[in-house]
Write a structure and sequence with these properties.
Layout: E1 12-15, H1 20-30, H2 40-53, E2 57-59, E3 62-68, E4 76-86, E5 96-104, H3 109-123, H4 126-134, H5 146-157, H6 160-163
Parallel strand pairs: 1-4, 3-5
Antiparallel strand pairs: 2-3, 4-5
Helix pairs in contact: 1-2
Length: 169
Amino acid sequence: MEKLIHTYKDVICCIKSTDKYEAIKQVITDCPIFTDLSDHDEFLEEVIKREKIETTGIGRGVAIAHGKLKTIPRVKVGLGLSTKGIDFNSADGNLVYLLFVIGSSPFRQIEYLRALAAIMRFVKMTDIREELIKHTDLDFSEEQNGSCLTFLDMMATQQFVEFMNAKIV
């Protein structure tokens, strides 16, 4: 039986590496959301293989790396926070400070697209990106930004569909 996620610390970690492939590996290794994958190494290979095809650095300090395996039962998203920045060869030339890694099954394309849309909705907002980057100590206990808290709830619950239309304050 799959472990339910109850806290953002299960899905958010800090990245020390400035190499994009090592950073991806860190997110997959350090975010507990991925520990129960039966094909952990194969998933890492798929994400890196996809990254080598074309960068997933979308700009504004964000990258959304992803990989698909038939053995992943539902969409899983981990987030790595970097203070140094990672060169992903993003179109805008900026370093990446927020590295999302999405794992899904090729049979769960609609779930994957909904998760991606929900993430994009939040990270396009400068204040949320800045708030997340400020918290590389992973202590969000004093966080006051309502939109950032909504984002953290979405990540902790991994319920992306519910947050696609959430009110952002």
